[in-house]
Design brief:
Elements: H1 11-15, E1 21-29, E2 34-42, E3 56-62, E4 70-72, E5 86-91, E6 97-103, E7 109-115, E8 126-135, E9 142-152, E10 160-161, E11 165-171, E12 179-182, E13 185-186, E14 196-200, H2 206-211, E15 212-214, E16 220-223, E17 234-243, E18 250-260, E19 268-273, E20 278-279, E21 289-294, E22 316-317, E23 325-326, E24 330-336, E25 343-347, E26 350-351, E27 361-367, E28 376-378, E29 384-387, E30 398-407, E31 414-424, E32 432-435, E33 446-448, E34 457-460, E35 462-464, E36 475-481, E37 487-489, E38 495-498, E39 509-517, E40 525-534, H3 538-548, H4 558-597, E41 612-613, E42 627-628, E43 638-641, E44 665-668
């Protein structure tokens, strides 16, 4: 219930010279509902200096003026009231004049200069004085004015008013030009010394001069501006009469003008809202507003009576009874890998039919996987989902998260929207040769016997591509060979076979350079170097291998390791062939089911596949083993790795096609390879 000041109060701006200065207010108390009126009185502080209308005053006084003559001085104005208003005047020390401070009816002060010792023009032609105005503050504020008095020769008689005070009353709606009073003065002198001019005294306030006009010849005081009873009820006007002598005589009087109230203010209706706006779930009988009526005029029942009409606008406020609603329950977003960090990838759109804060929505991202929080971010205000880092299709294909849309009501309501982000593949990985190992310290050739017919598979280049789809489909081309007519390479299998029957005059050693290219854009490639020896017996091969080994001791147990390698490779080949036969039947049936189901998987990446481990035949280190799958049209020795593939952004086509060899990497194990001898 504390009443506080909400902004700086300037008493002079609110009330001017009116004292006391007060502000009225009304207080509404609920339970029970009551209305109280109150008034705050604005107390004055001494924050204004007295101010003279001008910095210098000039008087002309005849030397014949007798002692005791009075000369009104310009009054200083101080907008403060009470003790802080103008309280007194002080005059600088001099032998001729003293100061007489007078008090008006309203309590304001004005000063008159009283001649104490007669002037002598021959002795002193001019007198200079300083008049100081002081208010009653602590410390007091002051103002100064220079008084310059010219001593003139005598004009024996001054004008005299027939009365010192005039009284008049005028209605506040009196039109401009209406006669208020007529003042009259006489002068016993003749000629110019007896001609009288009427004017406002020098200390008449500017506001009075704006509201009233005085005829300088006739002395008629008329209404000049718009009077307002509610602003000022009484005006105290000081006038003077001056003759036209060389040293004019001056007389002073005052006119008291009472302003009569007129019913010129209609009642004012004030609406004090208690329970407005009314919430949409308010019960019948709820109090909406209280009314109070004021009229600035005095008394009541004016004639003719004035009235007022007040329209009350009852606003219905919103209640948070609607949860946010998204245009979609879930979103599938497709993003190309190697994206630029910080890009927006989705705008989650939601609406709330409520108003104001109840319709102000905030978007929050929830991730099932904690690492997702480092990859994605959402703008809380507009629902824009940003990708904070660059994604890699080969690391992770799909991200799932939940976006919560919540309003700002109390209590808040929320809706959850699921978002799935699929990373589509780019051709950013070149083929990698697994066999023959490109960085091996020693190269061991494959062996083919002389007279081998055309079409015999000698060895196979094994490579993988970390990309997916056509970006991972590898083609093999014979780039360079010792005898280009002797060997050929399978375009998509990497199998190296004889192009014709070997002859006795063929070179015993052959080096082939195989170019591997994927089908991405741009095309990425790699190369593999294969060494092939033409030998009749295994002994010749062993001799060649011994010559090629980097060891310095040819008598170590080479035979033991060779026999062990042949046994291991043969066992691996047998197991592989058995697995291929079983899995071909199973894969043929599964591929048919996948093709039929792919039509119903729009906007989704393929699900997980059943898989078997790759044959570990001694060609690869354990870190290079892959999970592999069998295609329905594989050749006898083919094992194929089938990567996850995503359809392009915005595509509504399934990315899997049954029996499509271009979508697979091939990892092949052969039974005729010999491992390198161990140290």
């Amino acid at each position: 219930g504390a009443l506080l000041v909400s902004e700086r109060i300037d008493r002079e701006e609110l009330c001017g010279a009116l004292s006391p200065c007060s502000l009225s207010f009304e207080i509404v108390v609920e339970n029970p509902l009551e209305l109280y009126s109150g008034t705050v009185e604005i107390q004055d502080i001494n924050d204004n200096d007295p101010v003279f209308p001008s910095s210098q005053a000039k008087l002309e006084i005849s030397e014949s003026v007798a002692a005791g003559a009075r000369f009104p001085l310009e009054s200083a104005q101080d907008p403060d009231v009470g003790i802080n208003s103008l309280q007194t005047y002080q005059l600088s020390a001099n032998p001729h004049f003293v100061l007489d401070v007078q008090t008006r009816v309203d309590g304001s002060k004005y000063a008159e200069l009283v001649l104490e010792k007669e002037l002598d023009r021959e002795e002193q032609r001019e007198v200079r004085l300083v008049l100081t105005a002081l208010d009653g503050g602590s410390p007091p504020r002051s103002a100064h004015v220079q008084i310059h008095i010219d001593v003139l020769d005598a004009n024996d008689n001054a004008p005299v008013f027939n009365q010192s005070t005039y009284k008049a009353s005028v209605r506040e709606n009196t039109p401009s030009g209406t006669l208020v009073a007529k003042i009259s003065a006489y002068d016993l002198d003749d000629g110019p010394n007896g001609d009288i001019i009427y004017s406002f005294s020098s200390h008449t306030p500017t506001k009075v001069r704006e509201l009233f006009g005085l005829d300088s010849t006739t002395g008629e005081l008329r209404v000049k501006g718009q009077l307002d009873y509610e602003e000022t009820k009484l005006y105290e006007i000081y006038l003077q009469a001056k003759d036209k002598g060389v040293v004019p005589g001056v007389a002073h009087c005052k006119v008291l003008v009472e302003v009569v109230d007129v019913n010129d203010n209609a009642p004012e209706v004030t609406v004090t809202s208690v329970y407005s706006p009314v919430p949409e779930d308010a019960a019948p009988g709820t109090v909406v507003a209280l009314l109070s009526v004021t009229d600035l005029d005095s008394h009541d029942n004016g004639s003719p009576p004035l009235s007022a009409v007040k329209q009350i606008l009852v606003q219905v406020s919103d209640v948070n009874d609607n949860a946010p609603k998204s245009s979609q329950d879930s979103y599938d977003v497709y993003v190309l890998e190697n994206n630029v960090p910080g890009i927006p990838i989705l705008n989650v759109s939601a609406t709330d039919p409520d108003l104001g804060r109840n319709a102000h929505l905030f978007y929050t991202l929830f991730q099932g996987d904690p690492t997702v929080g480092h990859l994605f971010s959402i703008n809380q205000e507009n629902g824009t989902l940003y990708l904070l880092t660059s994604l890699d299709h080969e690391d992770q294909v799909e991200f799932s998260m939940m976006v919560q849309v919540q309003d700002s009501g109390s209590p808040p309501l929320a809706t959850n929207v699921s978002v799935s982000v699929f990373v589509t593949d780019l051709n950013d990985n070149a083929p990698v040769v697994l066999y023959p190992q490109p960085n091996a310290t020693a190269t061991y050739p494959d062996v083919v016997a002389p007279g081998t017919p055309a079409g015999h598979m000698v060895t196979k280049v094994v490579a993988v591509d970390a990309d997916a789809g056509y970006n991972a489909w590898i083609s093999y081309t014979l780039l360079q060979a010792t005898d280009p007519s002797l060997f050929a390479v399978g375009l998509h299998s990497g199998e190296i076979f004889t192009a014709r029957q070997l002859r006795e005059d063929d070179a015993p050693q052959h080096t082939l350079v195989i170019l591997l290219k994927d089908h991405g854009e741009p095309v990425l490639s790699a190369s593999a170097t294969v060494s092939i020896s033409v030998a009749e017996m295994i002994k010749e091969v062993l001799t060649d291998l011994t010559d090629m080994t980097p060891t310095s001791d040819p008598k170590k147990h080479v035979t033991f390791y060779l026999i062990l390698a042949v046994i291991l490779v043969s066992a691996a080949f047998f197991i592989s062939m058995l697995s291929v036969g079983i899995f071909k039947c199973y894969k043929w049936r599964q591929s048919k089911e996948m093709f039929n189901n792919s039509r119903s998987t729009l906007y989704r990446t393929p699900g997980p596949f059943h898989h078997i481990d790759a044959v570990r035949g001694g060609y690869m280190a354990p870190s290079l083993y892959q999970q592999v799958y069998l295609t329905t049209d594989s050749r006898q020795s083919d094992l194929t790795k089938k990567p996850f593939t995503s359809s392009p952004l915005g595509s509504r086509q399934s990315t899997m096609r049954n029996g499509e060899p271009g979508l697979y990497h091939q990892i092949v194990g052969t039974a005729n390879r010999l491992p390198a001898p161990a140290e």
